[in-house]
Write a structure and sequence with these properties.
It contains 22 helices and 29 strands.
Length: 675
């Protein structure tokens, strides 16, 4: 290492994904784009995230032969929140709705997101101008003793809380006083109108708090143990950096954190201003568009796991498609198609490497059976999360959970009825249990295209899957190699479909998924039909992810353009995490409840003015101060603040009539580093 590199501050990037934790050590020295000094991977250990983090970071420090004290900034991206929403995981939380009716649960997917979690309705809320209805929290107070013992947190949403948060604050304070549990209030996350969607965003945030808290705590503990005294930053879903403390309170903003970091990394590594970026991981494929060097943002809020949130994030489409996707067969077809995802399984090759004979003995027993079973090649194992996260299980769930241990158990030995299969799936959704099974990663091991886990166990899984029957009662493949080829071909084809689907959706075309499927199907068909169809992207694809060189090699003829896979594609997220900037915003609204009265709602305050200019000036002063404070909390001491105002006015008999003003301050700057 040169003297210049030694004297330059070092930056450590970490990405905690569903399967792997990546680490990269980067220095600003070494040209305009800096230099990657070392990179490494370790398995993500969900039961104790610190194990995976330490494995990756220790390897990086050893490769670079550097003093940990030279690291002046640590930045982290993660797909844990994204994966949790895609897989329907998260803690059990209680939703408190103030001023809403039960019918409001049917809007914006709120009822589906709530599932079996409890909800409490309270009278109260405000009108569009911030005027209060009568608040009654007696029902909530009566329910708190029972709820406090069965949930991991609370989400509070009040009617028009963005115009006056007083009732949310009252409920939040009551819950904290009586239970001591984390509480998320909707006005803290979004200033947008739309109560049910704001409630949905708040609910998901509350579910993710314990998960992100464990990640941050594990990282902080590891850094302290290694003598790394540096600020810890986390990538938000829009690609900006925020402090770890900021992310702990607003974990919902870390959805699409990993993909957002990968976009920053992709631009940094390739220099391409215009591209379609496709990042394939173990659980998901995330596709987004780079325009003129910047990722497109979704003005309507990020959609993950089928839920449209109010989180400003990159316009990323997330698909349950990855190297560890569940491999299944199409039901009821004479020649069934291979289906992948959206659920992630623990690959059998990985389970075999970790648990040895406990896995292989069961797979060999199933192979010796005369006939294949629907449950062949499936094993269940506890995730090892703290027992308190198992609060609120039903009797059936608790009974099944007790049977499952930290050593994999074959599902055909565990389940005695179809009803129990649904119970097992609920335990998986709660993040309490993993299911191991055949995945594309196993197929790659069978074919010798991947060699980091146990190939022999993968082959047993492929052999079991190949024995499954089609609609004619015949085995679907002759050999483990044959079924593995089909699985990998399917993954490449589906990758092309999701890339084209994203492109069509960005172009505003309806039926994007159907058209993408038809075009790719025609491209791979030996007999494409009478109508000849073709499609080509107007920009290259940047393929990211450790498995991108394998799965994206066959993409160009399917998407009609080149596919660029950068040298450091396997750590794009971790690299993107250290080259970003802090960026936060604050909003205020000025309304006119009655002629001559101008009401400013900013932060947690509501004030009235008799003059429009004075109200606007106060709103601008407020948002500047709030944005500056949030920027400091988010981790920068050098924020530049820009303010923009948007007015809604009308003209009546030639006179200008003020309706409303929206004032936004955006603060941005480089994160502070250790001195």
């Amino acid at each position: 290492m040169t003297a210049k590199t030694k004297s330059s501050p070092l930056f450590l990037g970490i990405d905690t994904g569903g399967t792997y934790t990546d680490a990269v050590l980067w220095s600003e020295a070494g040209g305009a784009n800096g230099k990657v000094l070392a990179k490494a991977k370790a398995l993500t250990t969900r039961h104790d995230l610190a194990v995976g983090i330490s494995g990756a970071v220790d390897a990086v420090l050893q490769k670079a032969a550097t003093d940990p004290a030279a690291i002046k900034l640590v930045s982290m991206s993660t797909t844990l929140a994204t994966n949790a929403l895609v897989e329907g995981q998260g803690g059990r939380v209680a939703l408190v709705m103030i001023g809403f009716a039960e019918g409001d649960l049917a809007r914006d997917g709120l009822k589906a997101a709530l599932g079996t979690d409890p909800v409490v309705f309270c009278p109260g809320g405000h009108d569009v101008h911030g005027n209060a209805a009568k608040l009654d929290l007696s029902g909530l107070e009566a329910a708190l003793p029972e709820l406090g013992a069965s949930v991991s947190g609370f989400a509070v949403c009040a009617y028009f809380a963005t115009r006056n948060p007083a009732h949310e604050l009252a409920a939040r304070d009551l819950i904290r006083e009586k239970t001591g549990l984390p509480v998320t209030a909707s006005h803290e996350l979004s200033a947008k109108l739309g109560g049910p969607r704001r409630a949905l965003t708040t609910l998901l945030n509350a579910r993710l708090i314990s998960m992100i808290d464990r990640l941050v705590a594990a990282t902080e503990g590891f850094l302290a143990a290694r003598g790394i005294v540096a600020p810890l930053m986390v990538v938000r879903g829009d690609g900006a950096l925020v402090s770890a403390a900021f992310a702990r309170q607003r974990p919902i903003e870390t959805i699409l954190s990993g993909p957002a970091a990968s976009l920053v990394g992709a631009r940094h590594m390739t220099g391409l201003d215009n591209a379609v970026v496709s990042d394939i991981g173990g659980t998901t494929t995330d596709v987004a568009v780079l325009d003129q060097g910047r990722p497109r943002l979704d003005p309507e809020g990020a959609t993950v796991g089928g839920f449209r949130t109010m989180v400003e994030a990159v316009a990323m489409r997330t698909f349950g498609l990855g190297g560890d996707s569940e491999v299944t067969l199409e039901d009821g077809a004479l020649s069934p198609r291979i289906l992948l995802g959206p659920r992630r399984l623990v690959p059998l090759a990985l389970a075999g490497m970790m648990h040895g004979e406990a896995v292989t003995v069961e797979l060999e027993r199933q192979i010796r059976a005369a006939n294949p079973s629907r449950m062949d090649g499936r094993l269940a194992v506890r995730t090892g999360v703290p027992e308190r996260l198992a609060a609120g299980l039903t009797g059936a769930e608790a009974k099944l959970y007790e049977l499952i241990g930290l050593t994999p158990l074959a599902v055909d030995r565990l389940l005695t009825s179809n009803a129990q299969n649904a119970t097992l799936n609920r335990l998986v959704s709660r993040g309490l249990v993993h299911v191991a099974g055949f995945t594309p990663s196993d197929a790659a091991h069978v074919l010798g295209k991947q060699a980091n886990w146990d190939a022999a166990t993968a082959r047993l899984g492929a052999e079991l899957f190949a024995r499954k029957r089609d609609g004619r009662g015949q085995a679907i493949a002759a050999t483990p190699e044959a079924i593995s080829e089909r699985v990998l071909t399917t993954l490449t084809r589906l990758s092309a479909e999701v890339i084209l689907e994203t492109a069509f959706a960005e172009d505003g075309l309806d039926g994007a998924a159907t058209v993408a499927h038809a075009l790719v199907q025609r491209a791979v068909d030996a007999h494409p039909g009478i109508a000849r169809l073709s499609v080509a992207l107007d920009r290259p694809v940047i393929g990211l992810g450790a498995s991108a060189p394998l799965h994206y090699a066959g993409l160009p003829p399917l998407v009609g353009h080149d596919c660029v896979v950068p040298e450091d594609t396997d750590v794009a997220n971790a690299l993107g995490a250290v080259v970003g900037q802090v960026r936060v915003s604050a909003e205020a609204r000025v309304s006119q409840p009655k002629e001559g009265l101008f009401r400013v709602a900013s932060g947690e305050t509501v004030r009235d003015f008799l003059d429009e200019a004075a109200a606007i000036a106060a709103a601008e002063t407020d948002v500047r101060a709030i944005a500056a404070g949030r920027a400091r909390d988010a981790g920068t001491d050098s924020a530049e603040i820009e303010i923009a105002s948007e007015f809604r006015v009308s003209t009546v008999e030639g006179q200008r009539m003020f309706i409303e003003a929206h004032v936004v301050a955006v603060a941005s700057g480089r994160p502070r580093i250790a001195v």
